[in-house]
Automatic annotation (TrEMBL):
It comes from the Bacteria. InterPro entries: AAA+_ATPase, AAA_lid_3, ATPase_AAA_core, ATPase_AAA_CS, FtsH, P-loop_NTPase, Pept_M41_FtsH_extracell, Peptidase_M41. The gene is ftsH. This is ATP-dependent zinc metalloprotease FtsH. The keyword Transmembrane applies. It is found in: Cell membrane; Membrane. It comes from Paraconexibacter antarcticus. Residues 675-684 have a biased composition (Polar residues). ATP binds at residues 268-275. The lineage of its organism: Bacteria, Bacillati, Actinomycetota, Thermoleophilia, Solirubrobacterales. Its main location: membrane.
Length: 695
């Protein structure tokens, strides 16, 4: 095992990265499927798409706007330079060209201005030079010819008409004005039109256009998502169905004096289906539905966010009864006074203040409901959460085993399944997964089935898809025999400790096939969903996490970097036992966990003294040292079973649950659900423990 490729181990499928805390957001999760309307229409933008990103102030795209200006300039060029403006006269010499043409009777008429003479030939004449045949000419009379009488007699003898005005007038005044000024007038008109469009109905200029709300209006019948597409979160669905019923039958509630909730806040970890619930509500309520992300309100220009909030609520009031949905509310709803902005002049706070004003100001009889979703309700401003604003708070929990089976049934509606596939059994092997995870699992299974040429998705496709989702894709890494053997001992150590520790999660699979960034994996999962953890269970997880490192110590007498993830996991659990859950007799039931962003305890901060910090470190070290001692004794005593399991792993590389227990010589007894896995009265259920090692 190389130093730059640490090996880790996994022994649980529950989600999260820290014990007793909800898992961090996973950017790979995708929202639930929403079918388009039958006619293919999406949610039309209000105002014809005004204010969208990539639009010029006129409402058209910048590309089209540039093409329009280019066309106008091209028109100007053609009108001023290419349109004909009359034949250009040829400049000829007085003698001999002009005199010869007069004597030949080819000069029809002339006019003079000073010594400059212009005239017209009777027939086209090609004078010397590069001008070409022409009927018009100009020339200069010498002074002696003008003062003499011979020229006048010559002109009179050849019937040349002498005019007072030049016959070469060119374009008329009106034509000249139109050709010269029309393109300019067109350009001025275009820019005036742009300015008027940008100003809108007010005098705010471009700011008025920026102040338009970007919310999408979903008309009645334009979405086919309903509550039938929502499964596994029945409590949240029932709360929203009550609001939908109020919108459909308001008289039933008004007769009893009931008032519609002004706001409903959906909270829960990512992927649980908050946005799906909002879409289902839009499909069920049969009223106009305005959807916007909270981040769309914020701009660099101060006051734009508040203006967009006003515009959104004005549009909803006009369409009442209606629903306003604001996704990721925490983008504008953070608690004020954190020092991150400039007080009341901060754009985010101005936007929040406008939301508070609108929610408290509009008439509840209008039937406008504000629906919002967030992953972080704990950071929201208290003014948002008071009665009269968000009256109803709905927590969208992770689904239990039955809920996961229902979610799988929804996502496999359009997936052809092989007969005999038990979705309940698949759901039982996915503790901690939320709706987005299960949708991804179904998709991975379908992709594997297509890749393998199956006409229907088989159970093996689901099993392999689950391993890929949890553990990562297999890697083609060529390991030396020594590294491969050390990896086998490491994973066998994890597995054997899990098999022999009372109350530990059963071992589901062992593999020494590299996956993701790991060289091997030990997968453990509980028999049933756990909502609370006792001290023995947490200590058992620490023992299992130490199993791989201790196995290397017992067999080789040395250690490697392969236990990096194991050490991080067991340290988090041990520190949580001391600082969060009061499982240390020395520290006692005192919450001393750090609240700073880095998760580090600093002396003198958060009410933690230097002495308390030292005491915490000592207790964490004591818990880990005792666990290390017990694991060393356990593996030394069962060294023969460790060897058996390792050799079987080297032979077949992957062992499922039955084969693993058989190879280790451990009797697999059926386990009953631990009574402590259910929260007792008055207790707050703990979040799933962190997902141990990817290995």
């Amino acid at each position: 095992m190389s130093e730059d490729q640490p090996r880790k181990s996994a022994d649980d499928t529950s989600q999260g990265s820290r014990p007793g805390q909800a898992p961090p957001p996973d950017p790979s999760r995708t929202p639930w499927r929403v079918e388009p309307a039958p006619d293919g229409r999406g949610a039309p933008d209000r105002q014809g798409g005004k204010g969208k990103k990539g639009k010029s102030p006129t409402g058209m795209s910048w590309q089209r706007f540039g093409l329009l200006l280019l066309a106008l300039f091209t028109l100007n060029f053609f009108l001023t330079s290419l349109l004909p403006g009359g034949e250009r006269p040829a400049r000829i010499s007085y003698s001999p060209v002009f005199l010869n043409q007069v004597k030949a009777g080819n000069v029809k008429e002339i006019s003079s201005r000073g010594e400059t003479v212009s005239g017209v030939f009777n027939q086209k004449f090609d004078p010397p030079g590069k001008h070409g045949p022409t009927t018009k000419f100009t020339t200069e009379f010498p002074t002696f010819a003008v003062n003499g009488s011979s020229l006048a007699k010559l002109l009179q003898d050849n019937n040349v008409i002498v005019n007072a005005e030049s016959p070469n007038q060119g374009r008329g005044l009106l034509a000249t004005l139109l050709i010269s000024l029309l393109p300019t007038l067109l350009l001025i008109g275009v820019f005036v039109w742009i300015a008027r469009r940008a100003a809108g109905a007010g005098a705010g200029g471009l700011g008025a256009q920026f102040g338009r709300s970007k919310a999408k209006r979903v008309e009645i019948g334009s979405t086919r998502t309903t509550f039938n597409d929502v499964a596994g979160i029945e409590e949240a669905k029932e709360e929203l169905m009550e609001v939908v019923d109020f919108l459909r039958n308001p008289d039933k509630y008004k007769k009893l004096g009931a008032k519609i909730p002004r706001g409903v806040l959906l909270s829960g970890q990512p992927g649980t289906g908050k946005t799906l619930l909002a879409r289902a509500m839009a499909g069920e309520a049969e009223v106009p539905f305005f959807s916007a992300s909270a981040s769309e309100f914020i701009e660099m220009i101060v006051g734009v966010g508040a203006s967009r909030v006003r515009d959104l609520f004005d549009e909803a009031k006009k369409a009442a009864p209606a629903i306003i949905f604001i996704d990721e509310l925490d983008a504008i709803g953070r608690a004020r006074g954190g020092g991150g902005g400039l007080g009341g002049h901060d754009e985010r706070e101005q936007t929040l203040n406008q939301v508070l004003t609108e929610m408290d100001g509009f008439d509840p009889s209008l039937g406008v409901i504000v629906l919002a979703a967030t992953n972080r309700p704990e950071i929201l401003d208290s003014a948002l959460l008071r009665p009269g604003r968000f009256d109803r708070r709905v927590v969208v929990q992770s689904p239990d085993k039955v809920g996961r089976a229902q979610i799988l049934a929804v996502h496999t509606r359009s997936v052809p399944l092989e007969e005999g596939i038990d979705l309940a059994a698949i759901a039982a092997s996915t503790p901690g997964m939320v709706g987005a995870d299960l949708a991804n699992l179904v998709n991975e299974a379908a992709l594997l089935a297509a890749k393998r040429g199956h006409t229907r998705v088989q159970l093996a496709d689901f099993t392999d898809g689950l391993e890929k989702v949890i553990l990562g894709a297999e890697r083609r890494v060529v390991m030396s025999d020594s590294e491969r053997e050390r990896t086998a001992y490491h994973e066998a150590g994890h597995a054997l400790v899990g098999m022999l520790t009372e109350g530990a999660d059963p071992v589901r699979k062992i593999s020494i096939i590299p996956r993701g960034q790991a060289l091997g994996v030990t997968l453990s999962a509980p028999e049933a969903d756990r909502f609370n953890y006792d001290q023995a269970y947490l200590r058992g997880k620490i023992l299992v996490a130490l199993g791989g490192r201790v196995a290397e110590e017992v067999v080789y007498g040395t250690i490697t970097t392969g236990a990096e993830s194991d050490i991080q996991q067991l340290t988090n659990i041990a520190r949580g036992m001391v600082t969060r859950w009061g499982m240390s007799e020395v520290v006692g039931p005192i919450a001393v966990e750090a609240s700073n962003p880095n998760g580090m305890l600093l002396p003198g901060t958060d009410g933690v003294s230097q002495a308390t910090q030292q005491l915490i470190d000592q207790e964490v070290r004591r818990i880990v040292d005792e666990a290390h001692h017990d694991v060393t004794l356990l593996l030394t005593e069962h060294r023969e079973q460790l060897e058996q399991l390792t050799q079987e792993l080297l032979k077949v590389e992957t062992l499922d649950e039955t084969d693993a227990y058989l190879a280790a010589g451990v009797l697999r007894e059926p386990r009953e659900e631990n009574a402590s896995s259910q929260p007792t009265s008055g207790q707050k259920p703990s979040a799933p423990l962190g997902e141990p090692a990817e290995v």
